[in-house]
Structures
1.
Amino acid sequence: MVALVAALAGVVVFVANRGATPPAAADRTSARPAERTPATAEIATPPAAPARPAGARTIEVCGLGLVETDDTNVLPPQVLKVLDDAGPLQRAVAELGASGNPSDRAVALVFEARRAAQAVGIFGPTGRPPCEDNDMACLMALAETGRLSAQGYVQALAQLATQSGDPVAYALAYASCGGASSKGRAPGCEAITAERWTAIDPDNGVAWLRAAGAAAVSRDEAARVAALERAANAPRFDHLDTALLRPLASPSLARVTPLERFTVNLGANLAIVAIGSMPSQAASEYCVPVRGTPAANTPPSAERTALCDRLATALIERDASFLGHAVGVRIAERVGWPADRLDPLKREHEALYMTRRNAPPEVNDTLSCASIEAQTRRYTDTLHLGERAALRRARERSGKSVAQLSNEYQAINAELERRRAGQAR
């Protein structure tokens, strides 16, 4: 689920500069129509058009047509006004908060916590960030202020999860409370544990992977292995953080413009990225130790290899996430799956990677009608089908085969290797 934001990088640049002074009217390419020259007057030479800034670009903005940025890639005010308007997302979140469904209310609380944290000021009153780029003390203080501002919502989420026993609410509470970490947790988070999650959702391999990660933090190797065994045998791997895409299904969005829809898409996706769900890391750390560590230098036992083989199978066959599939393929390669079994899985992973990378295909196309429609379709598919199934559908709609995309992936990797080799000389 992570890495979807990469395709939106251009827009993030535009929004990040939203406090800059808009270009003066004389600097814009769309000048007023020239006044008519009286018939008796001498025909004057028309003034030369203002020179286009060196860094300016023309992009398509759905509903507004072709729009030109200035030399710092700042969009015109009428576009930034829409991108800065959190109203459509807030209305969709409010609908979820008023629901009788605890998982809907949990989703709303996550968004409210994010809004409270962001309200401390990503941008100052001048429109500029309050911290210099490398001022880590300032950035950490700002993050701590944001955490404290969100604490009431996180506490409410933890209480909702504890009282309802709802799997989605519990998964979101676990991530919002900081997982296995005990530092700076909101009140009520002490009751949110991986062990309790596995009791609420015992058939979900994601919960067991979280339990394995928590056991690794506490250095309880027996509990870690037992949790990984349960994960390997789990019938499903539900990444419940995809519930944060539920605002996209709000009835209120039927009345918004495509550009407003884009802001909801972006807000929901950033919420998923911010919550940082990577449960398959527990399997990766056990089966593919980091180079240079004692575990990496020690041949694995037959029991460890057998468990990792089963984990690879479970992640590849039953994990709905892109990252879970990637970790599964990596573990399969580590334990020595034969090429005729492994190679098709690697090609599929490469094709899915390129599908994510190519959507939208160009930064300049991010705000076009076609791009917003494709993005909305993919996120909606992710909500209802899971990330991997959504990426497969997106690949099919692209018209490109697995082989084509895999070749593109390998060509990019080969070029990167050539550059690294050149730099090493």
2.
Amino acid sequence: MASPRIAIVIAGLLGASLLGCVGASSPTPHGACKDGQVSTCACVGGGASTQVCENGAFGDCACEVTSGDLASLSPPDMAPAVVLLTTLCTYHFADTTTGWRSHDWVAGDCSNGLPKAGWVAIGQGENASGTSGEPDCANVAQGRHYTHPGNDGPSDATLRCWFAPPAAQPKPGVTVCSYAWPEVATGWRWHTWTGADCSNGLPAGSAMGVGQTGSGNGTSPLGNCTNSAQGGVYDHATLQGATSASIRCAYVDPVPVARPELTVCTFLFTDVAIGTRSHPWVAADCSHGLPTPSARAVGQAGNGNGAQEQVSCTPTAGTHVNATATQGSVRCLFQNGAT
């Protein structure tokens, strides 16, 4: 898609020597033109514009440049940067314990400043024991993580919360859909999204999603955000037991954009295995190209039996940990770096 043309005052921003008139090898001599006279001149990078005679001499060439042209100009860092509207906050709880832990966010925890009131979120937890624990990112001022004494055991923990403004849209656009089941149950339960469930309307049919689950007992059940039409939660009869449940899915608009802030990368390990396995990302895994080297992420793990698992997302690979032998999947929502 063509970039909009950006008018630039060349002399002030880049200097006349870079994008000025290049039609002659030397400046037009004083007195060689009449004030107000207009002449055609060439622009660096192609195209033509005009220059106007003032005080008996032609001034700078009034060139324009497109945003696409900027990358070809010197210095190379003049290429437009990724504009960040979302923020990703991270904190590590170093103590080895179980139960709920909380942390009040400070600006240094976050990739793009503190989240603001009303922003929507999804989160990810990690324990050193190879399980996830249960994240809670509902409060923009504070993140929480629960390490279950039976399923996770005493462990340190890492919490990641990705926040997005509900109105101003990043590129690509995103909507966060959520639903809670108050009834106590086990097994799969599904909810078909309605517009009222989502922060920016229903997701597009081919939108890729990453999400988190919640439960009434802190057992972090298996969640499913692969279908943009519905979200699902699986409460294992033994590990979670009968409990209430909730699901939150962040869906990224599939429409291609230039210099995307967000990209979702996914992979399914079809072999049945236990322990850790990793997959190096390729462009085909991702909704909007590979993440940048400085990208940060929240992730969602999936597997074939609802047992304990963990996901880890880096800009180069997705890693999955299974506590029991089964298939596995990784889904990572990356916020690209600002440059």
3.
Amino acid sequence: MAALNHFAFAIKLPSLDSMGRWFLGITDYRHYGLFIAAVLICFTIWRRRRYGSWPGHEDYVAVVTSIVAILGATTTGIVFLLTKPPAVELLPSQSLLLIGLFLPIVVYSYALPRLRGLFLPPEVEEKPPKDEPSADENGPKEA
């Protein structure tokens, strides 16, 4: 058992900082573009096989904005959570554009309608009062 503990401490695992910096070093707008294109192709094939119809333009826009949000959030998380100090200098300028422009648009377009719906829910329609049951529904009245 002691040999196993000694072996575990002998393995040098990379730190989160070094893994984050490595990931930021390999990210590029071309990788993002290839990833988005691959997701769109998979989405098109999946939708065609599963539902028997082609996706609409709105579906493609929703998929692209969702993927851009995921990529931006992942990159932002890696920069600010894994690297100490934050390795903003390792981001390509195109990634800064992606994060600075698209991420707030996607976040606000999701968050603001959601908050509006929570603070100002749609009015609940009142049900019309029920009419009193007719004599036919209650059966014949005895005289």
